[in-house]
Hints:
Radius of gyration: 21 Å
Strand order of the largest sheet: 1-2
Shape: elongated
Number of helices: 7
Order of helices and strands: EEHHHHHHH
Amino acid sequence: LLVLSATFAIGQRIATMGNSSLVGDTMNACGCTGALGFETSAKALIRFHSIAPWSARELVKDNLRRQGDLARRSPLHSIPVADGLSFIGGRVKGGSHVRPWFPVNLARVEFVEICVELLNSRGMTYSPRDREELFQIFDSMDFD
């Protein structure tokens, strides 16, 4: 769910995606959140931004179903998870210096290129469709 709102910066109107804190910061600064309470303030913000309710449970269930379908079809399913993670971890910026407590950004295209390299290193055959589905695999895991 992406919510676009208008924000002004140096006299120019720009679009932001949902996480603009302008209204929330203003409500906190003027004491509205303290006086009205979190629930009431949150409901006011939701109404103010016209955010429609949605079922998180359905979203998660759909995503898990999609992940399962992709896992069954992808040639990656025959590679042990530990081997795949080790391979990807070694190729991500920072290589063997990557530690689990440091945040690492992995772009969609980079993920696909590394997975293709992994498949090639194992001598595995894959189709153009399999390669395209690697993008879908990345999308099914990327939650932010």
